[in-house]
């Protein structure tokens, strides 16, 4: 992604944008892509953004719970599916080896977590940029094995 941003800047074009410190208040399909309502968590100000594609980066907080509230069960953007997440006895969100969020319903869509998997995948998952290529490969292989041309 950063290479694309760099190449765009060299070419004087902007295909990609990064919106930091923005909470997604709503996300709706639009005629030409997706319409987002963004809220600044510091000022509370809001704005709408029409885009072709959305990539979400939720930061480096860990999934799970602790006494200080430093962890979260799911990223806030996934609160709408919270009740559909498979929860084993330990009370943590269940994430498979291939970073797929395990959902209770068998026909649920595939949801992968890029980060937030320290609890299930160990300390190396917490922002280790050197492991991002391996993580991306694991997700790509998982998707390729599950998606067929008919799906």
UniProtKB/TrEMBL annotation:
Keyword annotations of the record: FAD, Flavoprotein, Monooxygenase, NADP, Oxidoreductase
The UniProt record lists the keyword Cell membrane: no
Catalytic reaction(s) noted: L-lysine + NADPH + O2 = N(6)-hydroxy-L-lysine + NADP(+) + H2O
UniProt xrefs under InterPro entries: FAD/NAD-bd_sf, Lys/Orn_oxygenase
Protein's pathway: Siderophore biosynthesis
Cofactor dependence: FAD
A GO MF label: monooxygenase activity
Domain of life of the source: Bacteria
Family: Belongs to the lysine N(6)-hydroxylase/L-ornithine N(5)-oxygenase family.
Cross-referenced PANTHER family: L-ORNITHINE N(5)-MONOOXYGENASE, MONOOXYGENASE
The protein's name: L-lysine N6-monooxygenase MbtG
Species whose genome carries this gene: Micromonospora echinofusca
Lineage of the species this protein comes from: Bacteria, Bacillati, Actinomycetota, Actinomycetes, Micromonosporales
């Amino acid at each position: 992604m950063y290479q694309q941003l760099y190449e765009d800047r060299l070419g004087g074009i902007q295909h990609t944008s990064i919106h930091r410190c923005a909470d997604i208040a709503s996300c709706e399909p639009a005629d030409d892509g997706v319409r987002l309502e963004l809220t600044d968590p510091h000022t509370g100000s809001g704005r709408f953004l029409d885009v072709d594609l959305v990539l979400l980066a939720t930061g480096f907080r860990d999934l799970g719970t602790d006494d200080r509230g430093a962890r979260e069960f799911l990223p806030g953007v996934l609160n709408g599916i919270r009740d559909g997440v498979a929860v084993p006895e330990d009370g943590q969100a269940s994430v498979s080896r291939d970073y797929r969020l395990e959902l209770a319903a068998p026909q649920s869509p595939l949801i992968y977590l890029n980060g937030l998997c320290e609890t299930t995948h160990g300390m190396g998952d917490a922002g280790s940029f050197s492991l991002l290529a391996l993580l991306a490969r694991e997700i790509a292989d998982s998707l390729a094995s599950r998606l067929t041309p008919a799906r």
